[in-house]
Amino acid sequence: MGDDGAARRPPVLAVSPEALEEAVRVLRGGGLVAFPTETVYGLGADAANPDAVARIFAAKGRPADHPLIVHVASAEAARGWAASFPEPARALAEAFWPGPLTLVLPRSDRVPDAVTGGRATVGLRVPDQPVALALLERFGGGVAAPSANRFGRVSPTTAEHVAADLGERVDLVVDGGPCAVGVESTIVEVDGDRLTVLRTGAVTAEDVAAVTGLPVAATPTGPARAPGMLAAHYAPRARVVLAEAPEAAETVARWVEKGHRVAVLAEVLPEGLPQGAVPLPPVASARDYARVLYQRLRDVDAAGADVVVAVPPEPAGIGLAVRDRLLRASRAH
Ligand code: TXA
Ligand code: MG
């Protein structure tokens, strides 16, 4: 499909038995189906079909060496895609699947090179979303799926985001409503007893340590261990500026004085905002912040703001993932 693939809208079906049947038919035929998960919408293809997987990279405009997560309906199904499933992985799967956790494990022979960019490991996840689980159960196989956005754009948390961003590059969008978690899954690499968090999400490194009783290496900074975790991946068009609450109003004023249209994102809107600042609807908690983060970043662009000053949530629980995404977004410009 050409570069004008986004010009026309794809079919978007509200979830129903017929919609799921159609989605399975598209997957079996080697096509692309966008579907809801609890984190973000995924752009799915039959993980066992290299041609179908290649279409994901074309539709996203994503470099072929960025590996994809294989989504399956159960931990039992996941075992078929891993060459080994060490005890810590078993414990994590039992504690958090279905849920927002991806396990990176040695890949089995069943995993095509196209899915992993040729690497020796594969990312596996059982999503906690009824539509996703119903689709995976009916399909029966693994569904390789990155977030359903064009490469370098904000992840989609509604069917509308997917339709607007990918257009006819996707064959079918199944609409299961907005995503409950809102930020991508936590990725944990399990190398025997060595655990490394490659991306933070709703499941924290503390949770992983508590369940396994093992030390957990922190998310490596510097060159990304999980390819594809580049700054620009989480950024809107507008520049993202981070400010802690006490200095937020002053930061906003500085950017307004420089002639920018400045949006403000926070749990509690700072007092004394200058005239001309564009406050976004405040968020109720760290959990709520995660749920609406990508919607709000889209709202910034829609409001015509070229700067957003974001007051990040407390660095605990899912607030850590929100801070991580905001920090990456702030480095993109
Ligand atoms: O919540 C999520 O994980 C969503 C939903 C759709 O499940 N998916 C998602 O996929 O965020 P994507 O492709 O946008 O991000 C997956 C990340 C990438 O940074 C990729 O490099 C990393 O997972 N990844 C996948 N397989 C890997 C592997 N074998 N080793 C290291 N990193 C891997
Ligand atoms: Mg992504």
From TrEMBL:
It catalyses: L-threonine + hydrogencarbonate + ATP = L-threonylcarbamoyladenylate + diphosphate + H2O. It is found in: Cytoplasm. Gene3D superfamilies: DHBP synthase, Threonylcarbamoyl-AMP synthase, C-terminal domain. The keyword Cell wall biogenesis/degradation does not apply. ATP binds at residues 62, 121, 147, 155, 199, 234. Keywords: ATP-binding, Cytoplasm, Nucleotide-binding, Nucleotidyltransferase, Transferase, tRNA processing. One of its GO terms (cellular component) is cytoplasm. Residues 17-203 form the YrdC-like domain. GO terms for molecular function: ATP binding; double-stranded RNA binding; L-threonylcarbamoyladenylate synthase; tRNA binding. Its EC number is 2.7.7.87. It comes from the Bacteria. Required for the formation of a threonylcarbamoyl group on adenosine at position 37 (t(6)A37) in tRNAs that read codons beginning with adenine. Belongs to the SUA5 family. This is Threonylcarbamoyl-AMP synthase.
